[in-house]
Amino acid sequence: MTLFFALFLLAGLIVGVIAMIGGIDRKQRHGPWVKYLNLPTAGAAAALFGIVGYPLAKYSSLGTVAMLAIAGAAAAGAAAGMVAIIAGWAVPSAALHAEDPRFALQGHPARVSQAISGGQPGEIFFEHDGTRQAVPAVGLEGASIAAGAEVVIERIEDGIAHVELWSNIERELEKLS
Fold first, then answer.
1. pLDDT digits (tens, 9 = 90+) for 109-123
2. pTM exceeding 0.85
3. How many helices (H) and strands (E) does the chain have?
4. What is the DSSP secondary structure assignment for residue 38, as one 8-state letter?
5. Cα–Cα distance between 43 and 19 in angstroms, integer?
6. Domain 102-176 has CATH 2.40.50.1070
7. Can you give 126-177 as a three-state secondary structure string?
8. How far is CA 150 from the centre of its chain?
């Protein structure tokens, strides 16, 4: 019986790690219960079932049914606690988070079609959702950028893209590695 509970503990920990690494995709939540009955809830329930059941099996003289009932009640309590945490904290916090449209294309590659000079905007073009788009652009910190250069969009604010040379970003990435 101790092996049974140890396996539940291990399974709960594995499910918890998978949930932390993979996360929960907002687009995959369809019904009202899907967002509450998920990997973190299952992981917490399985882990607590094992945590409570293992010492009961190893150190108590309770029968199998009693051990399963106590460990099951603890697992149900863990699942209820996870649902309460998700419903009371995580879901309302996520609902308050609104994506800033200025940064919707942050990191998106583009090419300069009209040179960008210190104070004068130029123009970039890029493809997004299968459509080629052209947008006025300025360099970050007033940088001048020649036509044809590859750039990365930092943000689009008031219809003007703020861009940085890809070579600058590449150089910074090489310093990190």
1. 999 999 998 778 999
2. no
3. 5, 5
4. S
5. 8
6. no
7. EEECCEEEEEEEEEHHHCCECCCCEEEEEEEECCEEEEEEHHHHHHHHHHHC
8. 28
Degrees, nearest 5: CA angle 170-174-177: 140
What residue type is assigned to position 6 of the chain? A
Contacts of 169 (CB under 8 A, 6+ apart): 152
* Euclidean distance between CA atoms 175 and 29, whole angstroms: 40
Closest Cα partner for 149 from 135, 160, 159, 139?
Answer: 139
Structure token digits, residue 118? 């210190």
What long-range pairs does 57-63 form, CB within 8 A, spacing at least 24? 57/1, 57/2, 57/4, 57/5, 58/2
Name the amino acid, one letter, at 128.
H
pLDDT tens-place string over residues 151-173:
999 988 888 999 999 988 888 88
